[in-house]
Design a protein that fits this description.
Length: 585
């Protein structure tokens, strides 16, 4: 453990010191084994000190001695004159300061005073260590104590947030403990936490020391109390309830759904923080119990309503309740309506109406029709009819008619609108007029008509031009009103880019050649003759022409071109005559 400082003797050249070596430590009995050495040496060389005497050594208050003989010579190399081992008891806390001293007496040779050396031995751990203790609040947990001596006892205590208390006293190596439920109130917003356990170790009535360790605690069985009894729903539409007789039956798109839930109960010092309500594909959050008005809901099948109550620790309880729906849709119908033979006044009407059963609580209330000419504003009064029954109605086949069919059940109504067209047979032979009508009745005698128009009307509409070499007015063959047109004139196509031809039936031009003049050119030939070209005639003139010998020619008289055409000479293109007629009506 250490070596003392240099100690003096009666001989100034002889010194000694005490060495304490700790060989082993016995934790169980709080004891160490040490060896004590007392070593002498001379500070100079070449000399020896020896003789017979005694060396004394005190260890831990006990005095010991050993004989010294003349064979044990003290030299510069040094010699251990005392060596001995001892078991040293430690203090109850495991500490120990070992007191040693030594002196020598060799008569007439060497003596010394008692001189002391204090050394600290290893502190023997005496306080027991502790482990374990984690567990669920309200349940047993176990602490394990590792002690240095079987005789040691222990007192356990804890600290948890604001709580401090004793767990057990006079305990050995194992302690069973129920984690107090009072811990819940310390962690209202968490599902786990930790505390500290303290282990005080005693040897008899002597306190040896304290150790500590942490332990974890867990919140269990703390989901909120929430059940289907907390949830209710009803149809708040009194009109619908009067039909179904049960406000727990929700009719599609008719009932007014209201869901009510009461407050859940939090457990173990928690509080309810929120509710999540999931219905029909949507989730909403609420801070407290309430009534939710969903209004009308478009579902023909039962739907699940799920409400989750969530506490301040995040623990939750979910409850699912099925909401009963009765399917309902607007009344619908297959309507058959057509004129007899597709053109008669008599028109057949049949309505095949269907309604939703609504669990056999629904019924057909109204089945009616009314009509008006399409050109009119007001409908007739409604007429009641039976379902799946054909009725014959007489309506003028020269007009189109608007019809409405009204169908209603106990919950709602549907209106169908349709048109009965004018009577238009695909083909009609009128023997009186000796005419045929396609998709209509013929109007004219001796005609073939399509959609009320004759073939002639389609080929020669009003404004059409008819050319013929027969002088008979076309009205004789085709009907309509015809006037002679374009007498003595040739037709020209309209040209919107030419002001002479950009207006319908604009006239102009003349068959006679009008008075006009022509341009001319004059030149000299190489002999100095003057050549005048006009049409196909060439005149060669020499009068008045001179040559100035410089390559230029000059004339002595003017060339005059006169007008042609008197206004009564004919100027006609090749033509052929015919009769032209224009239809005006």
């Amino acid at each position: 453990m250490g070596i003392s400082g240099e100690m003096s003797t009666s001989n100034s050249y002889v010194k000694y010191h005490i060495t304490v070596v700790e060989n082993s430590v016995y934790v169980a009995n709080n004891r160490s084994n040490v060896t004590v050495y007392v070593r002498f040496w001379r500070t100079n060389t070449g000399y020896e000190t020896y003789g017979n005497g005694t060396i004394y050594c005190k260890v831990n208050g006990n005095q010991y001695s050993s004989s010294v003989t003349s064979n044990q010579k003290i030299t510069n190399s040094g010699i251990d004159l005392y060596v001995s081992s001892f078991d040293i008891d430690h203090n109850s806390d495991g500490s120990k300061t070992l007191e040693t001293s030594a002196w020598i007496n060799i008569t007439s040779v060497l003596t010394s005073n008692e001189q002391y050396y204090y050394s600290e031995l290893t502190r023997i751990p005496r306080a027991s260590s502790i482990s374990g203790g984690s567990g669920n609040i309200g349940s047993y947990t176990t602490f394990t104590i590792n002690r240095a001596s079987d005789s040691f006892t222990h007192t356990l205590s804890y600290s948890f947030h604001n709580l401090n208390d004793t767990i057990a006293t006079s305990m050995g190596t194992v302690v069973l403990w129920i984690i107090p439920t009072s811990f819940y109130a310390q962690i209202p917003n968490s599902n786990n936490s930790w505390g500290t356990v303290y282990c005080d170790t005693y040897s008899g009535g002597t306190w040896i020391g304290q150790t500590s360790n942490t332990f974890n605690v867990y919140v269990v069985n703390s989901n909120p109390t929430f059940s289907s009894s907390n949830i209710s729903y009803q149809d708040t539409n009194s009109t619908v309830v009067a039909i179904t007789g049960d406000n727990s039956k929700i009719v599609r798109n008719q009932s007014t759904l209201a869901v009510t839930f009461s407050a859940a109960t939090a457990k173990n010092s928690a509080s309810i923080s929120s509710y999540q309500v999931t219905f029909n594909g949507s989730t909403q959050s609420y801070s407290s119990a309430t009534t939710i008005n969903y209004g009308t809901v478009n579902s023909g099948n039962n739907l699940n309503l799920t409400i989750k109550a969530i506490d301040s620790r995040g623990n939750s309880t979910s409850v699912t309740q099925t909401i009963t729906f009765l399917d309902w849709t607007l009344p619908n119908a297959i309507i058959t309506a057509a004129r007899v033979n597709n053109f008669e006044n008599d028109t057949n009407l049949k309505v095949d109406a269907t309604i939703s059963s609504v669990n056999s609580m629904n019924a057909l209330q109204t089945l009616q029709y009314r009509y008006k000419k399409t050109s009119n504003t007001d409908f007739s009064d409604y007429v009641d009819i039976d379902n799946h029954t054909q009725y014959t109605i007489s309506i003028d086949n020269t007009s189109a008619w608007d019809f409405q069919v009204l169908i209603s059940d106990k919950f709602g109504s549907s209106t169908y609108n349709f048109i009965i067209a004018k009577g238009t047979p695909l083909m009609f032979f009128d023997t009186g007029k000796i005419s045929v009508g396609i998709n209509g009745f013929p109007v004219n005698d001796n005609s073939f008509e399509i959609n009320g128009k004759t073939i002639f009307d389609m080929v020669y509409p009003i404004g059409a031009i008819f050319l013929s070499v027969n002088s008979t007015n076309p009205a004789t063959y085709f009907g309509g009103t015809w006037v002679s047109w374009g007498t003595g004139r040739v037709p020209v196509g309209v040209d919107t880019n030419d002001s002479d031809f950009n207006t319908i039936e604009e006239t102009g031009g003349s068959k006679y050649l009008q008075s006009h003049n022509h341009s001319t050119t004059a030149s000299l030939d190489y002999t100095g003759n003057y050549s005048h070209n006009h049409g196909n005639r060439t005149d060669i003139l020499a009068e008045g022409i001179s040559d100035n010998r410089d390559g230029n020619y000059s004339t002595g008289s003017a060339v005059t071109i006169g007008n042609t055409g008197s206004g009564n000479s004919q100027n006609l293109q090749p033509y052929i005559t015919c009769y032209m007629w224009k239809r005006t009506a």
